[in-house]
Design brief:
83 residues, mainly beta, elongated, single chain, 1 helix, 4 strands
Length: 83
Amino acid sequence: MNDHSDQISLQHLFVGGSIGSMRLFLDNGSEGTRGYFLYKRVDGNNVLKVLNRMGNIWVVMTVDERKANKLEQKPFNWDKCAD
């Protein structure tokens, strides 16, 4: 993204905690006018933010949050991998 205002308008989305990776998808890359931001909140809920480009700025149009179970991961037993 060559336009500095694009980066600034998307940067705030990545602030805060999540379980796993936060994902940003832009239709037609930085030239598009629509995007989606997905992540799993720390409480386990799934969040989808729909973005629209207005001029040189990306704006969050809707936020859809779905209740989900928080996955508890057990520690991996590396001893099972030993030869």
